[in-house]
Design a protein that fits this description.
alpha/beta; binds iron/sulfur cluster
Length: 167
Amino acid sequence: MTLEEINYQIYDCKKCRLWQNAKHGVPGEGPLNAKVMLVGQNPGADEDELGRPFVGRAGKFLTKTLAEFGIRREDLFITNIVKHVSPENRKPFADEVTACLPYLVTQISIIKPEIIVLLGASAKETPRVEGIEYITVIHPSAAMRFTNMREKFRQQIAILAKRLRKN
Ligand code: SF4
C-alpha cells in the first residue's frame, strides 16, 4: 500500500456518513520520510474546499509558529483522525472515528514517524504505536484565540524544535 493508494481510497470512501457533506476528502500531505507527523481531529471548511489539511486560519497560524522555531511545515506529514469535514464542524461521532481510523493507522505504518504531535482533542483517539514518541500540544485554533494558550502553545512548539535539533 502506498500513500497515493490510501489517498484514492479516501477520495472514494463511503464507510461513514461524513462524505455526504464534503466537497473533498482530506487525506493529509507531507513527505514519505517525514520524521514528524501532526495529527488533528478533522478537516474544517477551508480544508474541505481545497482538499488539504490545516490551510485555514488555524493552519496558517500553525505554519507560522512552526517557522518561528525553525520547523518547516513541508518537512512534516500533516493529517487528521477523520478525513472528511463534519457538518457545522461538529466533533466526529465515535462510529465515524472508528470507521476512519484504519487510514491513519496505515499512514503511520508507511511513514514510520519518530514523533507524532497530537493537536488538541486528537490526543486520546490517535493510536499508540510502540517506538514512536507522542507529544501533545494545544490545538492551534485555541492557541490563536486565547492569549494564555498561545504562550503555552509556543512553549510546546519550542520543546518540539529542541527535540528535533537533537537528531
Ligand atoms: S470520514 Fe473517513 S470513514 Fe468517513 S467517509 Fe470519510 S474517509 Fe471514509
